Amino acid sequence: MSDDARQAAERYRLDRRLREAGLETETTESSGPARGSTAAERAAFVETSIQQAIRRGEFDNLPGAGKPLPDLGTAHDPDWWIRRKIETEQLTGLGPPALTLRVEHAEMAARLDALAHESEVREAVIDFNRRVVETRRQLQGGPPVVTPTVDVDAEVAAWIERRRARAEAAAVAAPPPRRRWFRRS
Question: Sign (positive/negative) of CA torsion 18, 20, 21, 22?
Answer without folding.
Answer: positive
